[in-house]
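Forwarding these from the shared drive since the link keeps breaking.
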Amino acid sequence: MKMVTWALAAGFVLVVAFNFILLNKYKQEREANVYIAEKQEKVSANELTLQENMLFQYAAEVTPCPDVVLKNPKTKGEQKLSELVEGKEPKLFFRFKETDCDVCIQKALRLLKEITTEFPDLPVTILSGYANTRQFYAYANSENKSYEIYNIGSFPVILEEQDKPYFFVLNGSLTMENVYIFTQENSRLSREYLKCMMHKYGYCPEEHDHTEHQ
């Protein structure tokens, strides 16, 4: 009788242990499936964002830029956008509104600081969009002095319809070129964009050295 009881008890323990192992395996597989599903969802959302950005970029590419009035924090006065590029080489601009994605703005500004520290000859001009003038002056005074900063109250271009900061190049004819919308998920891509702009417009020191030797 005792042998039967021990056998039943041992069998019960084995069944419980087997079920416990199966339950743990199920939990692990379930967690793995949830992780994969979340990753796929993030990838899909990121792809959708990139596609939306591309449409805005295509729509804005090689379009006339309005000659808006800028607020200059150094002089506390106003000037036209055309004055920044008239008779000069194409200039790279970074535009953000205070209503844009705040994390995106901060990441983009950090990236700009890194790039301009590495390549101080890169002429970047920031066009902020603060409704409050005092807030703009406070921002301009605290920002890196390696690039120019101006404020625009209203900037009637299609890129303002989306909620992320963006880069663009402006030439003397006020034609918007090489538009790029910044997203925090694609910092590496943004860095590559800035490097492309440096090579395209000859802001890289090694290119200047190579040209001089020729």
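-- next protein --
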Amino acid sequence: DITVTQSGTELYFFYARNDYPYKVHYYEYNTTNSLSETKEGKAPYDWDLTETAPSIDGYTCVSESTQTITIREDKNGADGLNVIVFYYAPLQYVAEYVAVPDDGGWLSNTIEVISGTQELVGSVPTANQYYEFAGWYLDEACTQSATSVGTFETETNRFTPDKSKLSETERNIFYAKFIKKVGNLT
């Protein structure tokens, strides 16, 4: 029963918005290979849902890293209307190994190119006759030790760069220093 008065009558209606399902996918670029578990949830109708791409080890997000959709009516997600897709490409790392001087010795590996979650193998130096190995360095002048950006095996002198400390956009060059052996001529 509603009573209408001469001064007017106010009538209030309250409603709750329906919730509809949404999904967030994390795919390898140009595929539907999932790199991380699909995020699923529900949100109210006409709600602006914003998601930010998470970091995935060995990959970089190549789509917009923050995406927003407006939730629409989609019963049980059957129409696929409320979907956000982030695309990722594998990171690529290049590690170069150079002997200094170039006639001082040779290296088991002079260049490595890896992508995604692959690991670097590193390089083992072998001194030529009349030379000995003197360490791994970050500069050609052999003044900055490379031990801060990788591991060094004392038994084999193998240097293996730590991928997390490398640049994926610039060259990563490591120098194996060889010095001439000296002897006493007397």
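The mean pLDDT is 92. Residues 20 and 75 are 7 Å apart (CA to CA).

- D.
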